[in-house]
């Protein structure tokens, strides 16, 4: 096999890892794929024979690329629609077994990604590499161009910010999550406001992202009664709710007359829904392959 082909094969074996790193740093499928492709371009233009540890080299390179993307975002004017949700990872609902608990553990929740979006670029990169991928602070310092001490401080600050998100989405039991989500929609379809409030945390937050196309649907609402009133839209005719996984956790795909109109994720604290995340943006929904869920 030609040396270039061997290098391409080696890179492909690392692609899932690189995609996971980039997604956790960027929360965007398109930008993550761009970062992975840019990493390949840099590898193909380098002297790969001089790279002693290819996985470490690739992780460092994609981290720097993602850091530049995050810095570019920070320099842009504030998002005009006011609420932005990360791109969801949508999967088929599995059969509630022990493997589902592992799936929840290995996935990164939308609630956590929302908080990561609030971090400074270097804080996010340091946190992701250390707390999610277990790189040493010395390795991370090399990737982001900071001292080891400064890198440790960045990760520590990020960890304090992230703590609240983890507390808000602290239920690890898959069956409990699905039961709550099903109860939420059963009450919504019946117009049962009291039933809705009973499954919601008193301080529940609903975040809806309609993008530029549906800016009027974009909203951030807090409080069980207000969120319950918003859920009344699921009583509309022609609406179908399909159980799916959203970032490894029970969520739903909502379609109207066969056309996907939203993906919804949920955070659960103890035995109540603490956050409802709704992606309504038609452009971003169009980029998701829903064929397996709507067939």
From TrEMBL:
Q: What keywords tag this UniProt record?
A: DNA-directed RNA polymerase, Sigma factor, Transcription, Transcription regulation
Residue ranges of domain RNA polymerase sigma-70 region in the record: 11-74
Q: Name one Pfam family in it.
A: Sigma70_r4_2
Q: Provide one Gene Ontology cellular component.
A: DNA-directed RNA polymerase complex
Residue span(s) of domain RNA polymerase sigma factor 70 region 4 type: 115-161
Q: How does it assemble?
A: Interacts transiently with the RNA polymerase catalytic core formed by RpoA, RpoB, RpoC and RpoZ (2 alpha, 1 beta, 1 beta' and 1 omega subunit) to form the RNA polymerase holoenzyme that can initiate transcription.
Q: Which family does it belong to?
A: Belongs to the sigma-70 factor family. ECF subfamily.
Protein name, please?
Answer: DNA-directed RNA polymerase sigma-70 factor
Lineage start = Bacteria, Bacillati, Actinomycetota, Actinomycetes, Kitasatosporales
The coding gene here is rpoE_4
